[in-house]
Amino acid sequence: MAAHARRFVLAMSVGLVFFGVPHGAAAGSTDASTAASQPRAVDSDTDPLWMVEVTGAFFVESWDMNLFRERLGGAAVSVYRQLSPRWTIGVEGHLTYVDQDPVKHGMLPAMVAMVRWRGLQIGETSVFVEGGAGPAYATTRVPGNGTQLNVVTNLGTGLSRPLTPRVDMLAGARWMHLSNSGFAGRWRNPDIQALGVYVGWRLR
Fold this sequence. Notes:
The structure is a single chain. By secondary structure, the protein is mostly beta strands. It has a single domain (2-22, 46-203), classed as Porin. It is 11% helix and 57% strand. It has helices at residues 2-19, 32-35; strands at 50-63, 71-82, 87-99, 106-122, 125-142, 147-164, 167-179, 192-203. The chain has an eight-stranded antiparallel barrel with strand order 1-2-3-4-5-6-7-8. The radius of gyration is 19 Å and the shape is elongated.
């Protein structure tokens, strides 16, 4: 678990360095407002309130191990709406492939309601935290000794940076928890505790 935690922190540190360098900024700039500026107010007449995101993600079971270690990879199409300069809500539609070799692999569609809070602005880069949960129904039992119907919970942090006036690049890291919340009985509620990363684009 400690090794995975170190990799998680290292990945986010590298991402922060890459995304946090403002376009055209000179080395050694002492402008404090560029280093950590506040999010500006949303102008509903000129700023798009609705956004569509397309992302890809990869997760590896990291602790509370099952008999076989699961690996998950897939894509998501999401719709978000900005409520204020800091708060955004949305719904993510996921389709994830679950590798649980040697037992049967499966596809895991999920619909997850998410909330984001933008806590920091570094140049043109926004840093946010996010969390949410929603139902998932797999084509086979996930984990192998679990059930097809589960609840997915996501918690993480991410970065966004504009590429054009209407397109942003996204990157982040998440903890994912999957289980059936005990509805199938106390002894049939295995879970997946995984860490992963995602990258993608936002269209505004």
